[in-house]
Amino acid sequence: MTHPQSAVAEVFVELADTLVTDFDLIDFLQLVSVRSAQALSVQAVGLLLAHTNDDLNVVAASSKTMRVLELFQLQRDDGPGLDCYLTGHPVNCPDLSSEASRWPRFVPPALDAGFAAVHALPMRSYDATIGQMNLLTATDGGLDGEQLMVAQALTDMATIGEAFELLRSYSRGQNQKLTEVAETVVCNNPAIADLRTHAGGTSS
Question: Closest Cα to residue 40, out of 69, 80, 11?
Fold first, then answer.
């Protein structure tokens, strides 16, 4: 990787520090997208998140160009992010120019925007896929093993932020301390079955 491990560690510390009382999910995910692009030395990162009706929405992007491309992908119902979300598996495309037949509506605008490769990773909560992270590079070729490991960890961090928001909302609604709710989740207490149902309902 281009960046030393200490720089990556600083990113995780910064993201962890945002899980505070005034935590805002969208701000957190936006920070994840920007810091992920920097830590992984990729040109753009976008995050798509599913709502209860299974519709994906662009919740964060490291640049305006990336946000437009993500919106285009959703509007045209075509692209690696959608494949990643629907299958629940990573999508690695080291050469976008060779995938025009696979994503005929996504590849041309992606190439025009200066991107040459894409990597999509699923955001998973329990056994459900709740969204995904897209990473685009200006040069073709795949991410190396260490980059993919860090990318998955950052994707998991984004998922943790979604779970934190859910836990906080649930604890407020039940008039319970957040630590108590978290403990019941860890212990698989049936008392929070409705919370698990709600979490699973955000995916396909």
Answer: 11
